[in-house]
Amino acid sequence: MKGQPVYKAVAPTSLKVREGEFVAIVGPTGCGKSTLLNATAGLLKPAGGHVTVFGTPLSGLNAQAGYLFQQDALMPWKTALDNVAIALEIGGTRRADALAQAQEWMKKVGLGRFGDRYPHQLSGGQRKRVGLAQVLVRQPKILLMDEPFGPLDAQTRQIMGTLLLNLWALDRKAVLFVTHDLDEAIALSDRVVIMSAGPEARIIGDYPIDLDRPRDAADIRLDPRFHTLHRQIWNQLKAEVAKTYGEDLAP
Ligand SMILES: Nc1ncnc2c1ncn2[C@@H]1O[C@H](COP(=O)(O)OP(=O)(O)OP(=O)(O)O)[C@@H](O)[C@H]1O
């Protein structure tokens, strides 16, 4: 609107995710994590700068990417199996093929016997599994995830984290995973990227996570190296979190 100052969520910044790499973005609330992810998905056109996907500048939606949001995106009037199959059918796959592939993915997410259930007959964790199958059935080369396990309880989040890691290990897509849970970021990723408090947020930290794989997203948190990494990254992150809440959390 005329006269209103322009709000710049993200300042000029640069982030490169390599093929097969699992990168988590962590930062205080409102810093611009989703903004960065939405620009990568092609859902948001950046006011400046650009997104390059496998060397090609992105215009329009990122067709190489599958996107998993915090909110359920399941259609309540369709069964779990149909919710997965529809992701292929809208791309032109014949229904019989789509159903067969959907059933394979339902098995991979541990819901092989739940295909005929409707979303309201599934738990939050089961609905997330269906959502994951719905995204992965299209075999995207890139996975963009925005607080995907946010609404789940702590144990289910960790179980979903391990499931995600196991599925990711099958073909190692490039993953960009937004979370404000530093434990989750370290448990899952190859790299944790820290954003500063907004406005004009920037990437201020980039930490390689040298924990062994395969990992269990729960057990890895007991590893002494996990604690060392956590301390190191939290030292930087806590100052940004404190800025967001306008108080100094440092002792
Ligand atoms: N459409 C919009 N119009 C104006 N401001 C917006 C819009 N979308 C986001 N913002 C602002 O941009 C900033 C970054 O928002 P964004 O959702 O990217 O942050 P985030 O780090 O993902 O937050 P959270 O962790 O709370 O989900 C916020 O201050 C938000 O209020």
UniProtKB/TrEMBL annotation:
<dbReference type="InterPro" id="IPR003439">
    <property type="entry name" value="ABC_transporter-like_ATP-bd"/>
</dbReference>
<keyword id="KW-0813">Transport</keyword>
<keyword id="KW-0067">ATP-binding</keyword>
<dbReference type="InterPro" id="IPR003593">
    <property type="entry name" value="AAA+_ATPase"/>
</dbReference>
<dbReference type="GO" id="GO:0005524">
    <property type="term" value="F:ATP binding"/>
</dbReference>
<dbReference type="InterPro" id="IPR050166">
    <property type="entry name" value="ABC_transporter_ATP-bind"/>
</dbReference>
<keyword id="KW-0547">Nucleotide-binding</keyword>
<dbReference type="InterPro" id="IPR017871">
    <property type="entry name" value="ABC_transporter-like_CS"/>
</dbReference>
<protein>
    <submittedName>
        <fullName>ABC transporter ATP-binding protein</fullName>
    </submittedName>
</protein>
<dbReference type="InterPro" id="IPR027417">
    <property type="entry name" value="P-loop_NTPase"/>
</dbReference>
<feature type="domain" description="ABC transporter">
    <location>
        <begin position="1"/>
        <end position="222"/>
    </location>
</feature>
<comment type="similarity">
    <text>Belongs to the ABC transporter superfamily.</text>
</comment>
<dbReference type="Pfam" id="PF00005">
    <property type="entry name" value="ABC_tran"/>
</dbReference>
